[in-house]
Amino acid sequence: MGAYLVTGGGGFIGSHIAEALVKRGDTVRVLDDFSTGRRENLADLAGRVEVFEGDINDEALAAKAMAGVEVVFHEAALPSVPRSVADPAATNRACVDGTLSILNAARQSGVRRVVYAASSSAYGDQPGFPRVETMAPQPLSPYAAAKLAGEYYCQVFTRCYGLETVCLRYFNVFGPRQNPKSQYAAAIPVFTSLLLKGERPTIYGDGEQSRDWTYVANVVHANLLAAAAPKASGHVINVVCGDTRSVNEVVARINGFLDTKIEPLYAPARAGDVRRSEGDFARARELLGYRPQVSFEEGLRRTVEWFKTHPA
């Protein structure tokens, strides 16, 4: 039984990783300042996870949380393109300074491996689909640039210090517990929450922009594999579902699950948003043994059902 730390463990993805580790019988710690994470995400794990509350930029706190830890899942971030456009300095502090703090603490604490939550936004809007990890990054937003900087720091710590790192580039993760209330909330929880209330959701752009929507269980699966995969250290690896859908289709599918026919509103496209996102997971299959566990359709059905029983 290993000991694991999840930074940002009170957040959407981090809490799902913590839950999976607990179910597996591991010793689990969470480091979170709960600025965007929510304590209720960990309510079902009360007494089974040790929570260290504070800023990931506090290296002394990070080192305390890492004492005796084998693997760190680094999920803490400010995960929003629009937020980063509005406040790039805050995004840099959370995503760049915070990642450097975690890597420093991990190196000094004798952690074996850090699994880093990278982002498909690093690819930008360059031509060529599906996205493969050998493509040169072309970030379009401060968030994308900050997450890419985190990747580079991970790789440098592997090369300079021998700290094992794996960077998982997530593609548009969605699922239960994703917060629909923030002005920077992700699309699927916002759409679902509004449609449940009979309100029209707003789509930015024409709605034909497409995404490789990835259900959170697939991301958790990839993280657990990345913690142990012997050949993964030093690599950047896409985590995708491999099933690209337009934003318009997502709204239509949610309407279908809810048996509603509510038409969306349309607003101008937002700065920093990419037109299309589609990823290849051949490297994940080769290095991690990863294959998507839950399809887009099934994942969306589970998500809608969760929001029906957990109204905002």
Tell me the number of strands: 13
CATH architecture of the domain at 3-174 and 215-242 and 278-293: 3-Layer(aba) Sandwich
Unreliable runs, pLDDT <50, ≥5 residues?
A: none
Order of helices and strands: EHEEHEHHEHEEHEEEHEEHEHH
Question: Mind telling me the CATH class of the domain at 3-174 and 215-242 and 278-293?
Answer: Alpha Beta
Q: What is the rounded Rg?
A: 18 Å
- Average per-residue pLDDT, rounded, comes to 96
Shape label:
globular
Name given to the CATH homologous superfamily of the domain at 3-174 and 215-242 and 278-293:
NAD(P)-binding Rossmann-like Domain
Assembly status: single chain
What level of helicity do the residues show?
40-55%
The number of distinct helices, counting runs of at least 4 residues, comes to 10
- Give the strand order, joined by hyphens, for the main sheet: 3-2-1-4-5-6-11
Please report which band the strand proportion falls in: under 5%, 5-15%, 15-25%, 25-35%, 35-45% or over 45%. 15-25%
- Helix vs. strand class: alpha/beta
Largest sheet descriptor? 7 strands, parallel
Provide a descriptive summary of the structure in words.
The protein is an alpha/beta fold. The chain has a domain at 3-174 and 215-242 and 278-293: 3-Layer(aba) Sandwich (Rossmann fold). 40% of the residues lie in helices and 17% in strands. The chain has 10 helices and 13 strands. The strands form 4 sheets. Strands 3-2-1-4-5-6-11 form a 7-stranded parallel β-sheet, with helices on both faces. Helix 5 (142-161) links the parallel strand 5 and strand 6 (164-170). The radius of gyration is 18 Å and the shape is globular.
